[in-house]
Write a structure and sequence with these properties.
This protein is α+β, with helices and mostly antiparallel strands. Helices cover 49% and strands 8% of the residues. The protein contains 16 helices and five strands. It starts with a helix and ends in a 32-residue tail after the last strand.
Length: 430
C-alpha cells in the first residue's frame, strides 16, 4: 500500500489539510479534559524529542535521525490539535510562525505567504537562509524551546483564571519545531507527511479500504481459501489434560494442541488467531503450511514469505499477544482504536521485511481484537465452528451441539471466562 508520502511527492501539503486530517484522528476531542490530555501529550513528545537529541550535537546516526523525525511529527500532531482546541486554526499558527522565523533569522523581506500556506514554504525559507542556521547554538535553541513548552503547560484550560495561549506563543512553538528539524536536516513537509502516514495507519479515515490480498495474482491452487469453516473440538486425556483437535471438511488438520503450561489458560485454541490474521490481513504462513498452500510457483515467495522463519514469527506474535491479552481480560473490554499502540508498533517491527508489514496498524488491531472475540466465544463453548470469509474480511463463531461421529459423544463442560485467566476444564472424557 502506497503511503501518503509516496502518493504526494509533488503535492505540497497545506497546513489546513494537515489540520483536517490530524483532527480526524483526534481520539481526545470528545472528552471533557481534551485540552489537558493534548497539552500533556505535547509536553511528553517534546520531551521525547529532546531525549533523542540530548547529546546536543547534529551528527546523529541514520536511525537516530529517523527517531527525531518521528518525535517531531508526533509533537506537531499535538501542537495542531491543542491549538484547535484553543480555537486557533493551524494556518493562523503558521502565519505567526513565519513572521517569527523572519525575525529570528533576520530576513528583511517581510512579504507574507499568499493563498494556502504550505509546509513547503517553510522548507523554502530555511533553504534560503541555511547559512544562518550555522550560527544557532543547538543547546541554547533547545533550552528556549523547552521553556516555551513549559509556558504552555502553565496556561489553564479554564477560561476564568487564565487566558488561552496567545497566537504569537503557539506560532513561536511551531517556529521552534521548524528550526529543530532543520538543524537535523529534516524538512518539515517530510515530517508532516510521514506523521500523517503514522496516525492514519492507526486511526484511518472513514471507509479506508483493506489492502489487496497478497495472493490475489497467484494460481488458484496456491491461494488461501476465500471461505473456510474450521471445527474446533476439545477433549481431555485420561489424566485430565485438555487438548484441541481441528477439523476441516471432516479431516483432522495439524496436531493435537495443548496449553503447554502447568495451569491451563486456553492457549490450545490459539489457531483461531491465525484464522483471524487470514481474515483481516490476508496473511498466515501457518495456515498455508497446514493446508499445503505454499506459493511454490514463485521460489522467492515460497522460501521467504511462506517459509519456516515466517511461520515462527507468526507463532511468536500470536504467543506474545496472547500473554499480553491474558493480563488484560483477553481484550474483552478493549474498544476498537484503544489497543495498546506500543504493542501494535512492536508487531510491525517483528514483521519487518515480510509482505504483511504493508498492512496498516488498524488492520492489525482489527485482526487481534476480532481473533480474541472469537477466542472467548470458543473457549466458553469448548467446541464450535469458526467461519472465515477473506473477501468480506470477517471471522465468526458458530456454536454446535452435535458431535462428530469419529470422536467420543460426551462434550466438555461449558464455562465462561472470568477475569484474566480461564478456569481449567473439570472432567475427563477419554
Amino acid at each position: 500500500m502506497a503511503t501518503f508520502e509516496q502518493e504526494n511527492e509533488v503535492h505540497h501539503l497545506t497546513l489546513a489539510e494537515y489540520q483536517e486530517r490530524a483532527c480526524d484522528s483526534n481520539q481526545f476531542a470528545a472528552s471533557d479534559d481534551a485540552i489537558d490530555q493534548l497539552r500533556f501529550g505535547f509536553f511528553g513528545e517534546v520531551g521525547g524529542l529532546l531525549s533523542a537529541v540530548k547529546k546536543s550535537h547534529r551528527d546523529l546516526a541514520p536511525s537516530e535521525r529517523l527517531t527525531v523525525k518521528e518525535e517531531l511529527g508526533d509533537a506537531l500532531w499535538y501542537l495542531v490539535t491543542v491549538s484547535v482546541e484553543y480555537g486557533n486554526g493551524f494556518t493562523q499558527i503558521g502565519e505567526a510562525a513565519m513572521e517569527d522565523l523572519h525575525r529570528r533569522l533576520s530576513i528583511d523581506d517581510q512579504k507574507g505567504p499568499t493563498g494556502q500556506l504550505t509546509f513547503y514554504e517553510f522548507d523554502g525559507l530555511i533553504a534560503y537562509c541555511h547559512s544562518k542556521l550555522e550560527g544557532i547554538s543547538l543547546a541554547q535553541h533547545l533550552k528556549e524551546f523547552s521553556a516555551r513548552v513549559g509556558q504552555l503547560m502553565t496556561i489553564s484550560a479554564e477560561m476564568d483564571l487564565a487566558p488561552h495561549p496567545p497566537l504569537e506563543h503557539l506560532g513561536k512553538l511551531f517556529a521552534d519545531m521548524v528550526i529543530t528539524g532543520a538543524l537535523f536536516d529534516q524538512k518539515i513537509e517530510d515530517v508532516a507527511k510521514s506523521n500523517i502516514d503514522k496516525f492514519e495507519s492507526r486511526w484511518p479515515r472513514e471507509d479506508n479500504p483493506y489492502i489487496p490480498l497478497f495472493d490475489a495474482d497467484m494460481p488458484e491452487l496456491e491461494k488461501l481459501p476465500r471461505k473456510l469453516s474450521m471445527r474446533f473440538i476439545e477433549r481431555q486425556t485420561a489424566a485430565g489434560k485438555p487438548y484441541v483437535i481441528q477439523q476441516l471438511n471432516g479431516v483432522n488438520i495439524g496436531d493435537r494442541l495443548t496449553d503447554n503450561r502447568t495451569h491451563p489458560d486456553g492457549y490450545r485454541f490459539h489457531d483461531v488467531f491465525h484464522l483471524a490474521y487470514m481474515a483481516h490481513l490476508g496473511w498466515s504462513p501457518v495456515i498455508r503450511a497446514l493446508l499445503k498452500l505454499k506459493r511454490k510457483s514463485d521460489p522467492d515467495l515460497d522460501e521467504n514469505q511462506d517459509g519456516a522463519r515466517a511461520r515462527i514469527i507468526e507463532e511468536g506474535i500470536a504467543t506474545w499477544i496472547f500473554n499480553h491479552a491474558h493480563r488484560n481480560q483477553y481484550y474483552e473490554k478493549t474498544e476498537k482504536g484503544r489497543l495498546d499502540y506500543g504493542l501494535l508498533k512492536q508487531v510491525l517491527d517483528m514483521v519487518d521485511g515480510y509482505e504483511v508489514a504493508s498492512c496498516p496498524l488498524w488492520q492489525w488491531e482489527t485482526a487481534i481484537l476480532e481473533g480474541f472475540r472469537v477466542f472467548r466465544q470458543l473457549y466458553a463453548s469448548g467446541e464450535g465452528v469458526v467461519h472465515v470469509n477473506m473477501d468480506e474480511h470477517t471471522i465468526e463463531f458458530e456454536e454446535l451441539v452435535s458431535e462428530p461421529e469419529s470422536l467420543p459423544p460426551e462434550p466438555p463442560q461449558r464455562r465462561v471466562l472470568i477475569g484474566s485467566a480461564p478456569p481449567p476444564a473439570q472432567e475427563s472424557i477419554d
